[in-house]
Specification:
With 469 residues, the protein is of the alpha/beta class. A six-stranded parallel sheet has the order 2-1-3-4-5-6, sandwiched between helices. A five-stranded mixed beta barrel has the order 17-18-19-21-20. Bound molecules: 5'-deoxyadenosine and iron/sulfur cluster. 5'-deoxyadenosine binds next to strand 15.
Length: 469
């Protein structure tokens, strides 16, 4: 627990809601954390008179919230900014002003460079300063500063509104950020630099937000954090709690049908969290646990601080606690110095675990990270070939996992209408998309489905007769 997270910020009284007189357009790409942040920014601006619009051309304020973790996002940002500049000039000719704000990790890492090349950007705001958005917008209108990327002393979590409705209404599954930042410093990763050190939210404010979500009809909560299982927040008893204890408390809340958490680091899977997978029925038997590589040499160079065997042993312990646990992972191929033998160790690990799903990426050198300086970069064509080989293996593993579900009777949490009229869609406990014929009234409910067929990326099934009575 950091001191920062414990300190209560001096918070101004929330302004009275006013009619939506200004239009806001938010453009998001990247991880779930970015989506969550965009939703919170929209929520934050609602009481200040901003209503959301789908069309950038109608917006008085456009916020770009791009991701920076892998590809060089800057070029994509410039192409969007070029389009927004035209909109801004067109609106100015009609006497309407448009504020353009750049948010997120790209703002944090490359804000100054972007302002040099695109001086028509009005506001550059780092991920730790979102809660100051209304104040920064007003200051900017009055000719104030453009850049807000310092990490402020107070925790932004406590200053963000807890009851935003702008985006959350009618959603069955919702994200809830409980932790941000990362102290792990994997040598390929920008997160410790862009999101800063690990900060955990106190349990009380997480539980309050969870209750608000459940009151709005949310039935599944996905706890988010760059390093979510490193969460160590102030507990209800004032003492530090770890994630398993928080999950235990959340699972008691009325209306909560399912709970997940992402993304975890193998080093932070403690005994209590493993046991939670055995003991807490609401906790989904699904875990996203990035391994990145199966080679000890590469894992060491990545500063992952575990070996392949440690990861496999952890999976064994998890499966001993929860035999049907489905696993997901992230992989990087072509890390500097990765040989064919290293890559084969990754293939072997993937084969051994049998992932239900996985994400895999070509290593991309991120400026400012140690691995970007390495002299033994793997040629692009080799990276592409390895990625294709790994992805074929992972796709086969996913297909086998889905195929093994055929004939099973699974509790599906229905989240929305299906692709065809009369269909509804939801998720199995193992995060598989499931489609079934059924009434819309089941959306937001758990119902048993017998899986009839496995398609490329989803399952098809029949509702259990009791579910439709
Ligand atoms: N190159 C490729 N993949 C990366 N990731 C993070 N940084 C990089 C990078 N520089 C991947 C990791 C991480 C996921 C979120 O993105 O696999 O787990
Ligand atoms: Fe990046 Fe995850 Fe490593 Fe942290 S643990 S440095 S977020 S890859």
């Amino acid at each position: 627990m950091t001191e920062t997270a414990l300190r209560k910020p001096a918070r101004e009284a929330a302004p009275e809601p006013v009619a939506n007189t200004r239009r806001l357009h938010v453009m998001t790409w990247g991880c779930q954390m970015n989506e969550y942040d965009s939703a919170r920014m929209a929520d934050l601006l609602t009481p200040h008179g901003f209503g959301e619009t789908e069309r950038a051309a109608e917006a008085d304020l456009v916020i770009l919230n791009p991701c920076h973790i892998r590809e060089h996002a800057t070029e994509k940002v410039f192409s969007e900014l070029g389009r927004l500049r035209q909109i801004k000039e067109g609106r100015a000719a009609e006497g309407r002003s448009t504020l353009i704000a750049l948010a997120g990790c790209v703002a944090q890492a490359e804000g100054e460079e972007i302002l040099r090349r695109a001086p028509y950007v009005d506001l550059v705001i780092g991920p730790q300063a979102y809660h100051r958005l209304p104040e920064l917008i007003e200051a900017r209108r009055a000719g104030g500063p453009v850049i807000a990327t310092d990490f402020p002393a107070e925790s932004k979590f406590d200053a963000l509104p807890q009851n935003g409705k702008a985006r959350r209404a009618r959603r069955v599954s919702a994200f809830l950020t409980i932790q941000e930042g990362c102290d792990k410093f994997c040598t390929f990763c920008v997160v410790p630099y862009t999101r800063g050190a690990e900060v955990s939210r106190p349990a009380r404010s997480i539980l309050e937000e969870a209750k608000t979500l459940l009151a709005q009809g949310v039935r599944e909560i996905v706890l988010l954090g760059q390093n979510v299982n490193a969460w160590e927040g102030e507990g209800l008893n004032g003492r530090p709690w770890r994630l398993a204890r928080l999950i235990e408390e959340l699972a008691k809340l009325d209306g909560l049908l399912r709970l997940r958490y992402t993304t975890s680091h193998p080093r932070d899977m403690d005994e209590a969290l493993i046991a939670a997978h055995r003991d807490i029925p609401a906790l989904a038997p699904f875990l996203h646990l990035p391994v990145q590589s199966g080679s000890d040499r590469v894992l060491a160079a990545m500063n992952r601080r575990h070996r392949a065997a440690d990861y496999l042993r952890l999976i064994e312990r998890l499966r001993a606690a929860r035999p049907d646990l489905a696993l997901s992972s992230d992989f990087i191929v072509g890390f500097p110095g990765e040989t064919r033998a290293d890559f084969e160790a990754t293939l072997a690990l993937a084969r051994e675990v049998g992932f239900a799903q996985a994400y895999s990426f070509k290593y991309s050198a991120r400026p400012g990270t140690p691995a970007a300086e390495a002299s033994d970069q793997v040629p692009e064509a080799e990276k592409a070939a390895r990625l294709a080989e790994l992805q074929a293996l992972l796709a086969e593993s996913q297909r086998a996992f889905n195929q093994a579900s055929v004939g099973a009777r699974l509790p599906v949490l229905f989240t929305g209408p299906g692709r065809h009229p009369g269909q509804i869609a939801g998720r199995s406990p193992y995060q598989q998309a499931v489609h079934a014929e059924g009434p819309a009234a089941l959306i937001g409910e758990l119902a048993f489905v017998t899986i009839a067929a496995a398609e490329a990326h989803s399952l098809r099934g029949r509702l259990h007769p009791d579910a439709v009575s």
